[in-house]
Design a protein that fits this description.
By secondary structure, the protein is of the alpha/beta class. It has helices at residues 5-17, 35-47, 73-81, 126-139, 188-192, 262-272, 320-339, 350-372, 375-387, 389-400, 408-423; strands at 23-31, 53-56, 70-71, 96-100, 106-110, 122-123, 143-145, 149-154, 161-167, 170-181, 203-212, 221-224, 233-240, 243-251, 284-289, 298-299, 302-304. A hairpin with a 2-residue loop joins strand 16 and strand 17.
């Protein structure tokens, strides 16, 4: 799967070692080479191979990206869209998810189907997954330049955007007909556009590490809404037998490091699930801009996608699937309109598309999260889900799918089934 990685990085080194032209032009510039940006680049090339697609990234490769590493059915569907599911061939598929309530009771169910993809997920360290996608993009004809940090943005020209990037060999000016910003939670392009970052009320904080425990099978993706973690939750995402990505997520506004730090919470959670040792060198924190505060995404010839556009599920912290979907859609629109020499924005009504596609899902996920943070309701929910498979399917679809179902009927079912369990 990852055999092309060293070749790809040697190509990067050659590019950086050469005297790059101080002025560059391209049709589509993508800033950021994570899954959202790279999927966008591949989609652009597949739809318009005659257009010059250029990707720049502020970092050098290979690089680790602190993340939960979970690739749900939505990511599988997006990889199918760009013809890249073969990148998953050597990875272990996961077909079920386990939810653990505050009382310790749990319920498990199958992952949802999205589109025509199989109901399965994967857990692949981002260093490997991102490298595989980047190598595929280069194979598709994308030009990829690492160590290019965007420092200025000029949107004044009528039909182009001019950016200036700092490299180890000086500054480079890049003129593009369209720009996709996929440069993360602290997006340089978002800042240059004057768009505020998410507030602490709509931002999550997370910490993750890697653990090995030969006595734990790690068969399912797991979400833990344990009493001692609320209002945070924990996850266990299995990479292989006895090896998993483990982490904690909490709303930034509710985080009190004076009471308990993220690292302390992670230590306690690891011990709770029976793990005393983990990879402290590979422990890292990161921010999650929730989709409860999505900014305007299109700005004439610029579109924000992924974390740059606050596309994080507020319930689960999942973001890769939505970022890839948005990146692909934005790239396909840009490719089509640039080939047709459309005078208007190359991204058209991209904002409307995104909100119609995911708006209801994010609202339902945010509501489910508020319920899960109430200990008694979370316990009732787990008990009800054990009795009603349809209710369990709704919850899983909100966590790792694109579900929009969280009706009053569902809430009444939770209360009725929970009370029935208490009486029994």
């Amino acid at each position: 799967m990852y055999g092309q990685r060293h070749y790809l990085y040697s190509q990067h080194a050659d590019l950086l070692g050469n005297a790059l032209s101080m002025r560059r032009t391209c049709d589509l510039l993508i800033v950021g080479s994570g899954p959202a940006g790279t999927a966008a680049a591949i989609a652009a090339r597949r739809n318009a191979p005659n257009l010059h697609t250029l990707v720049i990234d502020r970092t050098t490769f290979p690089r680790d990206k602190t993340c939960g590493d979970g690739l749900g059915p939505g990511v599988v569907a997006r990889l199918e869209q760009i013809g890249a599911t073969d990148l998953l061939a050597d990875s272990r598929p996961i077909d079920a998810l386990r939810i653990v309530g505050p009382s310790g009771e749990s319920v498990s169910g199958p992952l949802p189907t999205i589109g025509g993809s199989e109901p399965k997920g994967f857990v692949i360290p981002r260093q490997d997954f991102d490298a595989a996608l980047q190598a595929r993009a280069v194979t598709e004809g994308v030009e990829l330049l690492p160590a290019h940090k965007l420092v200025t943005l000029d949107t004044s020209p009528a039909h182009t955007v001019i950016t200036r990037a700092q490299t180890p060999h000086g500054h480079v000016s890049i003129q593009a007909k369209a720009v996709i910003a996929a440069d993360g939670a602290r997006s340089d392009i978002r800042r240059h556009l004057g768009i505020p970052y998410n507030s602490s009320k709509t931002t999550g904080l997370a910490i993750r590490t890697y653990i090995k425990a030969s006595t734990h099978p790690f068969d399912h993706m797991e979400f833990h809404f344990r009493k001692d973690l609320l209002p945070a939750y924990g996850w266990v995402f299995p990479i292989e037998r006895g090896h998993a990505n483990v982490g904690i997520m909490i709303d930034a506004a509710r985080y009190d490091p004076g009471n308990k730090t993220l690292r302390t919470m992670l230590n306690e959670f690891a011990m709770e699930i029976g793990v005393s040792e983990f990879d402290r060198a590979n422990t890292g924190t990161y921010m999650l801009p929730y989709a409860t505060s999505v900014p305007r995404l299109t700005h004439n010839r610029i579109a924000l996608v992924g974390d740059a556009g606050s596309m994080i599920n507020p319930f689960s912290g999942e973001g890769i699937a939505y970022g890839m979907a948005a990146g692909i859609e934005a790239a396909e629109r840009a490719a089509r309109n640039l080939q047709q020499h459309t005078a208007a924005s190359p991204f058209g009504d991209f904002d409307d598309w995104f909100h119609q596609r995911f708006g209801k899902h994010f609202r339902a996920s945010a509501y489910a999260k508020r319920l899960a943070q109430r200990q008694w309701l979370a316990n009732f929910g787990v008990r009800a889900a054990r009795r009603r498979p349809s209710l369990l399917a709704e919850g899983i679809h909100l966590l790792v799918g694109e579900g929009t179902s969280l009706s009053w009927r569902s809430l009444i079912t939770v209360l009725a089934q929970g009370n029935s369990h208490l009486r029994g």
